[in-house]
Design brief:
The longest helix is centred in the N-terminal third of the chain and has 35 residues. The chain starts with a helix and ends in an 11-residue tail after the last strand. Strand 5 and strand 6 form a beta hairpin. It is built from four helices and ten strands, in the order αβββαββββββααβ. The protein has 233 residues and is an alpha+beta fold. It has a ten-stranded antiparallel sheet, with helices on one face. The protein has one domain: Clam (outer membrane lipoprotein receptor (LolB), chain A), CATH 2.50.20.10.
């Protein structure tokens, strides 16, 4: 083999091996996060929800959230509660099968005082609701500091996670969602109020494209056992 051609082959081989190693490393990091998440087989938690969306006038709402592996989820509230489910269980479901997605490390970023490794998650199936995922991982604590999930059903949702006493389960004390107003699905009762709101062309031109939902979580009850009947309507 000619020296130049041999050099090219070596470079390509090293690049390919490096790419595979990066992919393995990304999935190893995600597996560590997933292993912590599934330690919480079930939980209930009190939630205080504050909504900052255009045309939606709502006082902060108290609710109770129930979750049970792998995909049982319920919100109880006396009022209409806007809770993006994606931030609670979509990451767990996404990471369940490492063969269902490709994962690549795309860099690092400092989030407050924590160094985060950025991992892009690309589903391999066209039938998945998820189009693209982006996770900011604290590799020392094995938790997600921030996620950006682009879905067919709700557009792009950016979620920030703030942890406290339940960090050993990967459960946050606070979540801040940034949603695309035009694509995010709002409960029907709230949508009716929006449709009844009159606005001028000038108002529409000033409409923000994004809104925020703030959720504070307190009084976690983890792995206490939750009956399946709780999740029945």
């Amino acid at each position: 083999m000619r020296p130049i051609l041999k050099l090219v082959v070596i470079v390509l081989t090293l690049s390919y091996s490096s790419g595979l190693q990066a992919q393995r490393s990304a999935k190893q990091l995600l597996n560590a996060v997933y292993s912590k998440m599934i330690m919480a087989k079930d939980y209930s938690v009190q939630a205080n929800i504050k909504v900052d969306l255009p045309f939606v006038k709502m006082l902060p709402i108290d609710a109770k959230i129930y979750f049970k592996q792998k995909d049982k989820f319920k919100v109880e509230s006396k009022s209409i509660a806007i809770v993006p489910r994606q931030g609670f269980d979509q990451i767990t479901k996404m990471l369940t099968d490492t063969n269902s997605f490709d994962a690549l490390i795309s860099g690092t970023e400092l989030i407050k005082q924590d160094q985060a490794t950025i991992i892009n998650v690309i589903p391999l199936s066209d039938t998945s609701d998820l189009i693209l995922g982006k996770l900011w991982i604290d590799v020392k604590k094995n938790v997600v500091l921030k996620s950006q999930l682009t879905t067919k059903s709700n557009g792009t949702i950016l979620t920030e996670y703030i942890y406290g006493a339940q960090i050993n389960y990967g459960l946050p004390d606070q979540m801040i969602f940034t949603v695309e107003v035009k694509k995010f699905k709002i409960p029907k009762g709230v949508v009716a109020d929006i449709n009844n709101t009159k606005s001028t062309p000038e108002d529409k031109a000033k409409d923000p494209k994004k809104g925020k939902i703030y959720i504070k979580l307190t009084n976690y009850q983890v792995n206490k056992g939750i009956a399946d009947t709780v999740f029945k309507k």
